[in-house]
């Protein structure tokens, strides 16, 4: 266990974002092999690999792929969710910037496997450079016949379009992304049991496959080297490798690819260890997942099951480490502000609850907290959790609830003394 | 039962009984030479009324002179005698009667119907209508019992600070 | 929808419901009320489920690997408004968790709600108030500042928006998009800053904006005309009929202290469902207008003198009696069926005149409905419900949303379902093209012609149909020749008409034996003097294309259909019996007045001097009229020219019936007393008849209607006992259908 480069194997090769270099290190071999196989066999290979969705939920990828009715006489769409908005996560950005062809290849394979002829990459509006890289890669792929009329000479048509988001976190939620892609307000739509899955009725009521950038980028490797090879990495139920965006109080922040099941401490060590003090807390999977105390971090392995057991989630891989100069209340103030700002406004609990929590944090960090505020925050979290329309509401309540459960004394200190328990120079500051 | 009384006996008996009471008190008074007085010389003298006495209605004002009544008609809804009629209208910046958007352009109470239950006062969300202790409400003409807003509204002169400030903004609800 | 039934359990009560029915509806079946804000059965489900008030706990059967079935409870509560019923579902609506969840949602909804209920027009009939009372927390824990936004922002001349009160349920935006189709409302910004808005610089000009006021579950969207005019507990409500067009929307007429206050929609699935249009909702203020007449007026030289009824009646009776056969009647399209029936008895039976007409121009001397088949039912106007099921609807010079609002909504509904194609024929620059509520944007074919070019388009259409292989055997040779020459002419609309002909054939293909194509002739085409030719040509085009269709000149005024049915026409008697001898139509009557051939003219509820197709001619004729009597609510231009003006009761002041555009006889009820000094029109007519020595005796409007049902076979099924609240369509009654 430890660092294991599959996606990032050739990340540092100069010019890897260009077709020639990418091909020279074995690029598009996965697609070339895929088009010689039957659609079912391609999906079978993905099934063998045990690949799970890398966007955060960890849903088995092959189930989605096989859910697309590939034989029906209707339009089908493949969508790549590149609206990477989760605070602390920046792996997709680098993937698209450095390895755009890997993403394009993965999408082309998905298009072939689901018999779809149109694909969309929905890229976060701020990722201008990544979008430029992807656009250039698409142009190159068209020129080489990896996209277009006949993908790799297979006779299967696949067109790929880039769509830029307009800067809404909510549009990273797959149904909201589809609304936005269709030109509607970026708000989520009904999901099972209220409406069929996107694989049955997604974009324009047509079957739509939607996956994360990293998921698509993994597929070429699985097709090129076989699902069994991929499944040999990782743990029993969390196969393969995963990108982690390590940030916070570490010496060398950045993206790291590790084998699933690697101990948490090892990832911190890989990033050069904690700086500026001792480790106080870790958010392992982006701002939406519950925070862990340093105590809880001990012995935790980074895979879907172990994180769940430790009371948090692997999420999108936005790994944030905090040293003991960190003020958890201030940290949650920032988090609450983010969710209040990004709530789309569709449903009541999220729209009103996120703003309310932010207001309370504002008051507490201004020294105006009341003793009942902590329980009030907990109660608001409970009133949002599970009752909102989409997971954004849950994501807004989990970190705050966990922080109260695990760092309640800091809240009490703020309320009693009107100042930070870790001193005036505590981080993060809020601007 | 006894035989029915004759009409004459029937009317004379209560009179005799009443006179007996008066006589008894007269005798007692004379015997004890008491100066105790049970009546007052109204209208020169008046009794103090009980604190919760409810008589004539008033529409009160805020200290700055604005009317408290917002014309919401909740008093009319609460009134068991259905004797209150309210019509509302918009306040404008140039013509402001009450804080906020709405004021009563007509407010009428039919005092002949009113039972002085005080439900209107209880229902009022702004404490505009109050029932005070003025009880001399007799008048000569039935139409005079239809109290209009002008009659009900507290005069400006009772205010501590008589200067109205017409540009007062609505309070945060 | 699947008609399969599934077994579900709600709060322990097992029941069978159609598969896919929303749980909130299923719960209603057994009397379980689930509180909600955003849910509305007629609005789209996709954009709903956002208020989260209707949460319930759900358990579904799940198959285990060993084949056994266990109930698996969903981890999160689900919104019952968007949850389709599935086999074996077990739903709980009153568990402690759900009660707590509702309380939480209401607390959230109320933190930014201003709670200015005492001054809010919705107060007293507000779903937010009601739900808070039943399910909400008694107090709030919110101590921060509430949001502040401008109050009473005017969206249009009819609607104001209070953004502070909005709970973002999206009912109004969904209505604008799904039902009205103009999509003028939407959300701006996001999160807690989200607000309902029209596009910048635009006004909420939809013709159906008033419905959003009724849909709004709080006091965010409010009527400007009703603003501060009364609280719900101040108001009395009466069942009534909207008088602003022929669709006959069922309304609730709210009044206070003997004055009209507002209109709300009254549910009638066959007519207006639960909608109204702005013309009706905001157009009935005339009922309490300041210009109402309250006493009869008699001309003395150049001015009117108020007189008593005895004198007025005596005067009118004298003049009519002297005129006898030389008396005539015009108008009546706003009078009730009872008025019209007694009136035509006065003219036909007492005065011996056949000169009655309800039409306001020479161009209308044509059959209003041309359909296939024989007998009365084939002549019946199309029902509003039928419109939804058509395969092709052609709006011919008809500004549907304005002229026929409810028919417009039905056509739109059919279009949304996907089976109905719409074609729109109008002249260039029609008002319809400028307006958001319009069929034009959803028309598959749009033909635009020059002023007065209706006949040319109709001929061209017939020509195209014949060229493309339509069956021309029934088409008169002369007409076919005209059509052939029209089609060879150059014209900008040639291509569009060709496509219209193709669409006609297409519609004919899929048609069953029912009426699958309707052509509605609107006001613009009705003023064309060649209307009869247009009708004939269009009808020939339909039959040549082999489609079962109907060409219809739909009634436009509230009781225009009733005036047709009850024989306010020179050539037919009540029930379309042949009149013998035939009288003169409106153009001929006016000509006769000008020539002194008519001695007394009665105009009822119609401002002929402005509404006649040639107003100048009407004014000239009226000026030379020896004796003119006008019955109306106010002193119109026509009334000002009268010798005697008789004030009559409004729809709110009496009982009666109107017949709507689909031939549905509908009752309205007296809401409040009429002003002293006005009378019902039929009573006036009966009193005049009595003075002339003929007793036309009825004790009440009900008796008149009973007599109509007894004497006019067309209305046999529309007697007072049959009508109920929703009315009866005479065509359905004749065909033996019950309920429609």
Main sheet overview of chain B: 3 strands, antiparallel
Shape of chain B: elongated
Task: Work out the radius of gyration of chain B.
Answer: 25 Å
Task: Please name the CATH architecture of the largest domain in chain C.
Answer: 3-Layer(aba) Sandwich
Low-confidence stretches of chain C: none
The fold-level CATH name of the domain at 56-159 in chain B is Alpha-Beta Plaits
Radius of gyration computed on alpha carbons of chain C: 29 Å
CATH topology of the largest domain in chain C: Rossmann fold
The CATH first-level class of the largest domain in chain C comes to Alpha Beta
- Sum up the overall morphology of chain C in one term: globular
Task: Describe, in short, the structure shown.
By secondary structure, chain B is of the alpha+beta class. Chain B is built from four helices and five strands, in the order αβαββαββα. Chain B has a domain of 104 residues: Alpha-Beta Plaits, CATH 3.30.70.
Structure description:
The complex is a heterotrimer of chains A (431), B (173) and C (740). By secondary structure, chain A is an alpha/beta fold. In chain A, 43% of the residues lie in helices and 13% in strands. Chain A has 17 helices and eleven strands. Chain A has a five-stranded mixed sheet with strand order 6-5-11-8-9, with helices on both faces. A four-stranded parallel sheet of chain A has the order 3-2-1-4, sandwiched between helices. The model of chain A has no long low-confidence stretch (mean pLDDT 94). Chain B has helices spanning 7-32, 74-78, 119-123, 149-152; strands at residues 57-59, 84-90, 102-110, 129-131, 146-147. The radius of gyration of chain B is 25 Å and the shape is elongated. The mean pLDDT of chain B is 88. Chain C folds into four domains: 2-107, Ubiquitin-like (UB roll); 110-223, Alpha-Beta Plaits (2-Layer Sandwich); 297-362 and 563-734, Rossmann fold (3-Layer(aba) Sandwich); 369-552, Dimethylsulfoxide Reductase, domain 2 (3-Layer(aba) Sandwich). Chain C has 740 residues and is of the alpha/beta class. Helices cover 31% and strands 19% of the residues of chain C. In chain C, the strands form eight sheets. Chain C has a seven-stranded mixed sheet, with helices on both faces. The chains are: A alpha/beta (431), B alpha+beta (173), C alpha/beta (740). Chains in contact: A-C, B-C. Chain A binds chain C through residues 168, 170, 185, 189-190, 193-195, 340-349, 351-356, 359-360, 363, 370, 372, 376, 379, 382-383, 386-389, and chain C through 45-46, 49-53, 55, 58, 60, 74-79, 82-84, 86, 101, 104-105, 107-109, 111-112, 141-144, 167-168, 170, 186-187, 189-194.
């Amino acid at each position: 266990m430890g660092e294991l480069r599959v996606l990032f194997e050739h990340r540092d090769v100069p010019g890897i974002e260009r077709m020639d270099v990418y091909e020279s290190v074995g690029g598009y071999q996965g697609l070339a092999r895929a088009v010689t196989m039957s659609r079912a066999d391609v999906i079978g290979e993905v099934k063998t690999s045990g690949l799970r969705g890398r966007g955060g939920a960890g849903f088995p990828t092959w189930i989605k792929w096989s859910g697309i009715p590939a034989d029906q006489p209707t339009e089908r769409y493949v969508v790549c969710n590149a609206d990477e908005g989760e605070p602390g996560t920046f792996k997709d950005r680098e993937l698209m910037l450095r390895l755009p062809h890997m993403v394009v290849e993965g999408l082309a394979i998905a298009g072939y496997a689901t018999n779809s002829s149109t694909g969309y990459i929905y890229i976060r509006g701020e990722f201008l450079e990544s979008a430029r890289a992807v656009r250039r890669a698409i142009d190159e792929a068209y020129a080489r016949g990896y996209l277009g009329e006949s993908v790799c000479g297979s006779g299967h048509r696949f067109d790929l379009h880039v769509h830029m988001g307009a800067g809404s976190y909510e549009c990273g939620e797959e149904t909201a992304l589809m609304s936005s892609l269709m030109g509607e307000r970026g708000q989520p739509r009904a999901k099972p049991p209220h409406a069929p899955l996107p694989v049955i009725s997604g974009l324009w009521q047509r079957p739509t496959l939607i996956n994360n950038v990293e998921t698509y980028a993994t597929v070429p490797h699985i097709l090129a080297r076989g699902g069994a090879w991929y499944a040999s990495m990782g743990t029993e139920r969390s196969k393969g490798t995963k990108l982690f965006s390590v940030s916070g109080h570490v010496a060398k922040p950045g993206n790291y690819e590790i084998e699933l099941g690697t101990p948490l401490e090892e990832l911190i060590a890989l990033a050069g260890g904690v700086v500026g003090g001792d480790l106080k807390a870790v958010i392992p999977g982006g701002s939406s997942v519950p925070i862990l105390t340093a105590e809880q971090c001990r012995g935790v392995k980074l895979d879907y099951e172990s994180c769940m057991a430790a009371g948090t989630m692997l999420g999108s891989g936005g790994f944030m480490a905090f040293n003991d100069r960190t003020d958890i209340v201030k940290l949650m103030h920032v988090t609450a502000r983010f969710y209040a700002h990004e709530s789309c406004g569709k449903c009541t609990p999220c729209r009103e609850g996120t703003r309310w929590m932010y207001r309370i944090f504002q008051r507490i960090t201004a020294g105006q907290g009341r003793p009942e505020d902590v329980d009030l925050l907990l109660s608001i979290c409970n009133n949002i959790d599970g009752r909102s329309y989409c997971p954004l509401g849950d994501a807004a309540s989990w970190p705050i609830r966990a922080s109260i459960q695990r760092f309640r004394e800091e809240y009490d200190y703020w309320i009693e003394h009107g100042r930070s328990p870790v001193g005036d120079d505590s981080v993060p500051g809020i601007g | 039962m006894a035989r029915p009384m004759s009409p004459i006996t029937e009317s004379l008996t209560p009179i005799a009984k009443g006179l007996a009471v008066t006589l008894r008190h007269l005798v007692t008074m004379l015997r004890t030479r008491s100066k105790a007085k049970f009546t007052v010389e109204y209208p020169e003298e008046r009794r103090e009324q009980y604190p919760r006495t409810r008589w004539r209605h008033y529409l009160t004002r805020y200290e700055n002179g604005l009317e408290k009544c917002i014309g919401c008609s909740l008093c009319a809804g609460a009134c068991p005698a259905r004797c209150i009629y309210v019509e509302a209208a918009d306040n404008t910046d140039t013509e402001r009667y009450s804080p906020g958007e709405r004021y009563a352009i007509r407010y009428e109470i039919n005092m002949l119907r009113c039972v002085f239950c005080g439900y209107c006062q209880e229902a009022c969300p702004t404490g505009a209508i109050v029932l005070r202790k003025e009880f001399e409400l007799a008048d000569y003409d039935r139409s005079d019992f239809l109290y209009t807003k002008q009659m009900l509204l507290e005069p400006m002169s009772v205010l501590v600070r008589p200067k109205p400030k017409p540009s007062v903004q609505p309070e945060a609800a | 929808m699947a008609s399969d039934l599934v077994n579900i359990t709600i709060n322990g009560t097992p029941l069978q419901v159609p598969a896919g029915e929303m749980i909130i509806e299923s719960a209603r079946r057994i009397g379980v009320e689930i509180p909600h804000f955003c849910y509305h059965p007629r609005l789209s489900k996709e954009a709903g489920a956002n208020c989260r008030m209707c949460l319930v706990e759900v358990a579904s059967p799940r198959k285990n690997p060993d084949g056994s079935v266990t109930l698996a409870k969903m981890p999160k509560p689900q919104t019952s408004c968007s949850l389709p019923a599935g086999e074996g579902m077990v739903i709980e609506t009153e568990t402690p968790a759900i009660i707590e969840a509702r309380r939480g949602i209401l607390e959230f909804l109320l933190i930014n709600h201003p709670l200015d209920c005492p001054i809010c027009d919705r107060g007293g009939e507000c779903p937010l108030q009601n739900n808070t009372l039943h399910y909400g927390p008694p107090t709030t824990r919110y101590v921060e500042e509430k949001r502040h936004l401008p109050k009473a922002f005017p969206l249009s001349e009819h609607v104001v928006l209070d953004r502070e009160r909005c709970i973002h349920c999206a009912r109004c935006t969904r209505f604008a998009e799904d039902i009205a189709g103009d999509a003028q409302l939407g959300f701006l910004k996001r999160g807690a800053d989200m607000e309902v808005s029209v596009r910048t610089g635009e006004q909420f000009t939809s013709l159906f904006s008033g419905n959003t006021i009724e849909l709004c579950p709080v006091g965010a969207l409010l009527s400007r005309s009703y603003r501060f005019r009364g609280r719900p507990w101040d108001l009395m409500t009466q069942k009534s009929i909207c008088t602003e067009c022929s669709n006959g929307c069922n309304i609730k007429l709210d009044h206070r202290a003997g004055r009209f206050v507002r209109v709300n929609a009254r549910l009638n699935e066959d007519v207006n469902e639960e909608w109204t249009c702005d013309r009706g909702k905001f157009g009935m203020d005339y009922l309490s207008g300041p210009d109402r007449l309250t006493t009869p007026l008699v001309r003395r030289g150049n001015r009117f003198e108020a007189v008593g009824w005895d004198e007025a009646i005596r005067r009118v009776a004298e003049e009519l009696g002297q005129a006898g056969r030389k008396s005539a009647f015009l108008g009546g399209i706003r009078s009730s069926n009872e008025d019209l029936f007694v009136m035509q008895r006065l003219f036909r039976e007492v005065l011996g005149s056949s000169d009655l007409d309800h039409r306001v121009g020479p161009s209308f001397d044509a059959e209003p409905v041309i359909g296939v088949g024989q007998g009365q039912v084939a002549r019946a106007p199309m029902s509003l419900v039928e419109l939804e099921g058509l395969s092709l609807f052609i709006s011919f010079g008809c500004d549907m949303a304005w002229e026929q609002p409810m028919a417009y909504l039905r056509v739109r509904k059919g279009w949304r379902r996907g089976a109905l194609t719409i074609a729109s024929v109008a002249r260039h620059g029609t008002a319809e093209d400028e307006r958001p509520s319009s069929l034009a944007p959803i028309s598959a074919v749009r033909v635009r012609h020059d002023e007065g070019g209706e006949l040319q388009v109709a001929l061209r259409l017939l020509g195209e149909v014949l060229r493309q292989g339509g069956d021309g055997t029934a088409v008169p040779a002369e007409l076919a020749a005209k059509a052939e020459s029209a089609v060879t002419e150059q014209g900008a609309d040639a291509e569009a008409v060709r496509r219209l002909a193709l669409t006609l054939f297409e519609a004919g293909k899929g048609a069953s034996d029912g009426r699958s194509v309707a052509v509605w002739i609107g006001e613009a085409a009705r003023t064309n003097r060649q209307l009869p030719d247009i009708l004939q040509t269009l009808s020939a085009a339909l039959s040549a294309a082999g489609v079962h269709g109907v060409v219809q000149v739909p009634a436009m005024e509230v009781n225009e259909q009733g005036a047709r049915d009850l024989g306010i026409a020179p050539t037919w008697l009540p029930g379309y019996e042949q009149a013998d001898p035939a009288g003169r139509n409106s153009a001929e009557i006016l000509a006769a007045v000008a020539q002194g051939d008519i001695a007394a003219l009665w105009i009822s509820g119609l401002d002929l001097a402005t509404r006649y197709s040639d107003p100048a001619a009407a004014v000239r004729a009226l000026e030379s009229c020896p004796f003119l009597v006008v019955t109306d609510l106010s002193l119109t231009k026509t009334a000002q020219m009268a010798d005697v003006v008789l004030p009559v009761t409004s729809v709110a002041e009496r009982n009666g019936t109107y017949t709507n555009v689909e031939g549905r006889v509908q009752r309205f009820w007296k809401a409040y007393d009429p002003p002293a000094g006005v009378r019902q029109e039929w009573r006036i007519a009966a009193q005049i008849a009595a003075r002339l020595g003929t007793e036309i005796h009825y004790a009440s409007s009900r008796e008149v209607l009973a007599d109509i049902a007894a004497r006019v076979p067309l209305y046999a099924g529309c007697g007072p006992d049959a009508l109920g609240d929703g009315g009866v369509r005479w065509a359905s009654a004749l065909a033996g259908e019950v309920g429609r």
